[in-house]
Amino acid sequence: MIVTRLDAAQLLDRAEELAELLVDIVNGGASVGFLAPLDPAEAAAWWKERAAAAAAGRLAVWAALDGDRPVGTVGLALPDKPNSAHRAELVKLMVHRSARGRGLGRTLLTAAEQAAAAAGITLLHLDTETDSPAERLYAGAGWTRAGVIPDYAADPGGVLRGTTLYYKKLERTQ
Predict the structure, then answer these.
(1) Which residue, 85, 89, 87, is CA-closest to 77?
(2) Helix axes 104-118 and 133-140, enclosed angle (nearest 10)
């Protein structure tokens, strides 16, 4: 398994493959902002829209490749304001159902954390569905639970769920 950073052109070129991953995640019940069943065309359009943010330096995306097939992603959303240049939001950590149980989520998380530290980011934050399997991953990787917001977002089935906020302080490695 190789983890590689995707630039804007690669996000556009791989939009259909990345859409397959997103559809699998959402239709499998993961709460990443979409309702099930997710239309592959909608998923591909969403990935294509990310290319502009990547080109502008506001989004960094890594993909885990099994051969040439993306089976996982993670992103860092970078703020555009001077007073928040020290932080980033971890977004869309996703692992295809067929690739779970092999430590890929932790590998992707580590790649994003290391890249953030190398870029001078000293604070990461994220939100995830409360009581989801992802909470174990973040807690085990040293993230600090900041609190829960009830009824924050609908899960893929349309049921309102809480979200748990996490943060992690990083040491600069540049």
Answers:
(1) 89
(2) 50
**Which distant-in-sequence residues (6+ apart) come within 8 Å of 156 by Cβ?**
26, 27, 29, 30, 31, 34, 35, 36, 38
Domain assignments of the chain as residue spans, ordered by start: 2-169
Q: Which CATH class is domain 2-169?
A: alpha beta
- Taking the alpha carbons of 89, 66, 45, 32 in that order, is the dihedral positive or negative? negative
Contact present, 160 and 153 (Cβ < 8 Å) = yes
CB count within 10 Å of CB 90 equals 24
Convert the pLDDT of each residue in 63-120 to its tens digit.
999 999 999 999 999 999 999 999 999 999 999 999 999 999 999 999 999 999 999 9
Residue 31 has phi, psi (to 5 degrees) of -90, 95
Which secondary-structure segment (H or E) carries 107?
helix 104-118
**pLDDT, tens digit (0-9, with 9 covering 90-100), for 142-151:** 999 999 999 9
For the whole prediction, is pTM greater than 0.90? yes
